[in-house]
What we know:
Blueprint: H1 3-25, E1 45-48, E2 51-55, E3 76-80, E4 83-88, H2 94-102, E5 116-118, E6 137-141, E7 159-163, H3 166-169, E8 177-178, E9 180-182, E10 186-188, H4 193-201, E11 205-206, E12 221-224
Parallel strand pairs: 2-4, 9-12
Antiparallel strand pairs: 1-2, 3-4, 3-5, 6-7, 6-8, 9-10, 11-12
Amino acid sequence: MSVRRMVVLALVSVASLAVGAAVATAGSFPTDPVTNVPPGWLSSTCVVNGVEYLSDDAFENEGFGCDETPDNGSLTGICIDGVAYNYISDDFDNVQFSFEINNATDLHGKSYGHTAAPCVPPIQRAAAAPVPQGPDRYIFCAVAGNTDLNGNPIAPGTSLNLPADQAASDPHYKGATPGFFVRGEGATCSLSPAQAALAAASTTYVNHTGGSGDYNQPEIYTLVG
């Protein structure tokens, strides 16, 4: 064999070893990079306006938050092991990130078994607390020490037509209590002795129409009878 041929074969062999080594180590990790501890790629999340997002920051060794926002047009969806994520990235789109997850292996080339693919982002916003849309004013019953705006005493038991929070915030009406509801009469503070006894034993509360179960109509009145 000529010297030239031997040199060529040697170079080919070296090149083959180099390629083989590159293939063997590409996407290889000593522990599962997707879910391992210390935190893996799925640990890179952030919450923006009540929505949770997964980013590529942990994959890029940039920390475990999001250095991008959904407003920059990078929002897509990715499904990983059957779970859909709102995915944001400034470098790796959901196709590339899916490829990296699917092809992650241990140092012996054995797959970690994750399945990822682009999908529709779930975009699940945190529900805002509902606000009751009931009446603006209620009947409260005056207590000793209540006065009108001029400082004149108000007799205890007098019906006061007040906004819902005024009894708690206005010193003129401090301590005033919600009224009672009498069928056929409505909200009132004027009770007969018999009605007062019934009210003292009542544990039922109704809204300003005498009903219940309507979120928009707070049940603040003690039902008499």
